[in-house]
Amino acid sequence: MRSSVLLTSALAAGAIAGPIERRKVYTETQVTVETITVYIPSSSAPSSSATPTSSAVPTTTVAPTTSAAPTTTAAPTSSSSSQAAAATSSSALAYGVTHTSGTVQATFHEGDEYKNSVLWHHNRARANHGASNLEWSDECESAAQTAAAYCDFEHHVVDGQGQNLFTTSGDAYNVTAGITDSWYKGEADIYTWWGEEPPHSSSDSASLDMETFEKYGHTTQMLWKSTTSVGCVTIDCGSKMTVSGASSTMGKYTVCNYSPPGNYVGEFAKNVAAPSGAYSGYSWSD
Ligand SMILES: *[C@@H]1O[C@H](CO)[C@@H](O)[C@H](O)[C@H]1NC(C)=O
After folding, report:
1. Cβ(175) to ligand 1 under 6 A?
2. Is the pLDDT of residue 207 over 80?
3. Residue 284 in contact with ligand 1 by CB distance below 6 A
4. Strands 135-136, 35-41: parallel, antiparallel or unpaired by DSSP?
5. Closest C-alpha residue for ligand 1 atom 2
6. Do the record's keywords include Signal (predicted)?
7. Sign of the C-alpha dihedral, residues 258, 263, 268, 272?
8. Vertex 194 angle, CA 192 and 195, to 5°
9. Residue 235 C-alpha to ligand 1 middle, in angstroms?
10. In the 3-class helix/strand/coil scheme, how is 140-199 assigned residue by residue?
11. Which residues of 104-130 are buried (b: 16+ CB within 10 A; e: fewer)?
12. How confident is the model at residue 54 (pLDDT cuts 50, 70, 90)?
């Protein structure tokens, strides 16, 4: 199994990088979803014991704080004149940025309008789960660029960053559909462990159950409270694109990297809160 091979190599790399490992998972999606698990060094206790309670971190505050608007300092609104004027709602800054709403977002793949749509769609979802606005990270963008350039729909990760992948066929990049419809709504609808730890493997209690994780891992990374920044790259891989090692027509490829990364085993309860409001009306074109 491909993921097992990658898991093995990731474990080896982690063992070299540091003596103490903490489990982490990275996620990706398209029509089918694949997931890869890696370990990254951590200063917390090793997770070798059967119980996955990370003693370093208090797990008490589970209840979602229902403050409607995130209170952290908003990311600087990169005021690109015409786009800012085209942006609609007066509450847009509740999500840290103004952005150009509408179906035109399907064409965005670079520049300020792209970044602002990426941030807005992340931050609206996060606000609904008591998580503060993400800011754009050039470091994450740079690492995402490196990963995207492979055009292979595989994770290429760096220490200290999480990663979500999305790729689609057709003429449109449709990055906001990937974020809001696929990663957020599609997975939040089936996630039932808000404020709790999701299921662990029956054979290894220090691991997540991967079969369920594959169905929700993007949304938990998106909503992860301790994550503070994101940087994405969306490119047209054209005929170069491969998925699962085979040539693919799904060449409109998006890679988002997150810092600090989410999806740490044992830390879901305090990082992924229940939605405070309905999100069924959220759309990629908002
Ligand atoms: C983008 O994705 C949405 C949601 O899946 C879809 O309805 C829409 O047609 C897509 N847009 C384009 C231009 O492909």
Report:
1. no
2. yes
3. yes
4. unpaired
5. 177
6. yes
7. positive
8. 145
9. 17
10. HHHHHHHHHCCCCCCCCCCCCCEEEEEEECCCCCCHHHHHHHHHHHHHHCCCCCCCCCCC
11. ebbebbeebbbbbbbbbbbbbbbbbbb
12. very low
Contact assessment for residue 235 and residue 43, using Cβ atoms and an 8 Å cutoff:
no
pLDDT of residue 24: 54
Q: Which residue, chain included where needed, has tokens 């891992």?
A: 217
DSSP-assigned beta bridge partners for residue 256 = 164, 232
Which ligand 1 atom is the nearest neighbour of the CA of 107? Answer: 13
Centre of ligand 1 to C-alpha 164, Å, is: 19
> Residue 179: CB within 6 Å of ligand 1?
no
**Do the Cβ atoms of 132 and 228 come closer than 8 Å?**
yes
Residues near 167 by Cβ (< 8 Å), separated by ≥ 6? Answer: 30, 153, 237, 241, 243, 248, 250, 251, 252, 253, 254
State in Å: Cα 176 to ligand 1 middle: 9
- DSSP H or E stretch at residue 221: helix 210-223
If pLDDT is split at 50, 70 and 90, which confidence band does 27 have? low
pLDDT at 25: 58
The angle that helices 111-127 and 210-223 make with each other, rounded to 10 degrees, is: 110
In terms of DSSP bridges, do strands 35-41 and 242-243 run parallel, antiparallel, or are they unpaired? unpaired
Q: Is 170 close to ligand 1, i.e. is its CB under 6 Å away?
A: yes
Residue with tokens 């039932």: 192
Determine if ligand 1 sits within 6 Å of the CB of residue 169: no
**Which residues, 6 or more positions from 171, have their beta carbon under 8 angstroms from its beta carbon?**
none
Mean pLDDT, the chain, rounded, equals: 75
What are the tokens at 194? Answer: 């808000």
pLDDT higher than threshold 50 for residue 223? yes
Q: Does 147 score more than 50 pLDDT? A: yes
The H-or-E segment that residue 236 falls in is strand 229-236
Ligand 1: centre distance to CA 102 (Å): 11
